[in-house]
Automatic annotation (TrEMBL):
Family annotation (CDD domains): metallo-dependent_hydrolases
Superkingdom: Bacteria
Name this polypeptide is given: TIM-barrel fold metal-dependent hydrolase
Keywords: Hydrolase, Lyase
InterPro entries named in the record: ACMSD (IPR032465), Amidohydro-rel (IPR006680), Metal_Hydrolase (IPR032466)
Amidohydrolase-related domain boundaries: 3-278
Alphabetized Gene3D superfamilies for the sequence: Metal-dependent hydrolases
Organism encoding this protein: Kribbella aluminosa
Pfam families: Amidohydro_2
UniProt GO MF annotations: hydrolase activity
Length: 280
């Protein structure tokens, strides 16, 4: 079974405004259709794939997907999909949205976008958010790494900020998205330190050298078990992500260095992330 810990729901154009809408072509160097339909997702994923679905909230960057829409989408395919609520803690009323998404909609995790929304994720002002998530077993998916959006401050994308969160909330399950590219070294340092902090490998395969190099660092630091599979659909697909991982696993090592451990790459592809995140 494949578990995809990072896929999106967008119901374009209602969810997306500028600057996100106008700058998204930078993601692949050309136009990207972000409208999500489950049939399109399922057609590009192995049978039986279980999928975590997130929306996203970041007023600063022009992205706002209602949690009710995520819940309705998941309800159409409850055996395959697990929904997360999203929060922009710079937006008034986020605490009510947290309770609504969790207690009324039954969403099972939280997506945060500190860089897109423009906030310091390590600020103690948000400790009640993290305490709520920790006490209710709601795993976090946090966007770390770069972006194409010009208004998003890169300093809030650095994975080192999540180190402080994990120190204060050691039982909180956290996934750092995209292996925090291009800050992979910092990401590896954080996931190695903390028992319940992981990284996903979504949206990396179309930069194959960078992915190969990142996984070599993972191998050298012996943190293969802290990586989770993700796609970042609709930016790419599950099938393409699996193919890309296997492609870099087949690359011979640099002379004098071992290649990637292909067995570990396969273990990553097939890792059951749900018990690790408390979602069984």
């Amino acid at each position: 079974m494949i578990v995809d810990v990072h896929s999106h729901l967008f119901t374009c154009p209602d969810d997306i405004d500028d600057p996100f809408r106008g700058e998204v072509s930078r993601a692949h160097g050309g136009p990207v259709d972000l409208t999500v339909k489950y049939a399109d997702y399922a057609a590009t994923a192995p049978d039986g794939t279980r999928t975590i679905v997130v929306g996203g909230k970041a007023r600063r960057s022009g992205l706002w997907v209602e949690d009710d829409d995520v819940a309705a989408y998941v309800a159409e395919h409850p055996d395959q999909l697990i929904g997360y609520l999203s929060l922009d803690p710079t937006h008034p009323g986020w605490r009510d949205e947290l309770r609504h998404g969790h207690q009324e909609l039954g969403l099972r995790g939280i997506k945060l976008m500190p860089m897109y929304a423009g906030f310091d994720p390590a600020d103690p002002a948000y400790d009640d958010l993290y305490s709520y998530a920790e006490s209710h077993n709601l795993p976090l998916l946090i966007h770390t790494g770069t972006t194409f959006v010009s208004t998003a401050p890169l300093r809030w994308a650095l994975p080192v900020h999540i180190d402080e969160v994990a120190i204060r909330h050691p039982e909180l399950r956290i996934v750092l998205a995209h292996l925090s590219h291009p800050f992979e070294g910092g990401c590896i340092a954080v996931i190695r330190k903390h028992r319940h902090v992981y990284a996903d490998v979504s949206a990396l395969h179309y930069r194959p050298f960078q992915l190969w190099h990142s996984l070599r660092l993972v191998q050298d630091y012996r943190v293969w078990d802290k990586l989770l599979f993700g796609s970042d659909f609709p930016f790419t697909t599950v099938d393409a992500s699996i193919e890309g991982l296997r492609r870099v696993a087949a690359v011979p090592g640099i002379p004098g260095l071992d290649p990637l451990d292909a067995d570990q790459v396969e273990a990553l592809i097939h890792r059951d992330a749900l018990p690790l995140l408390g979602l069984t």
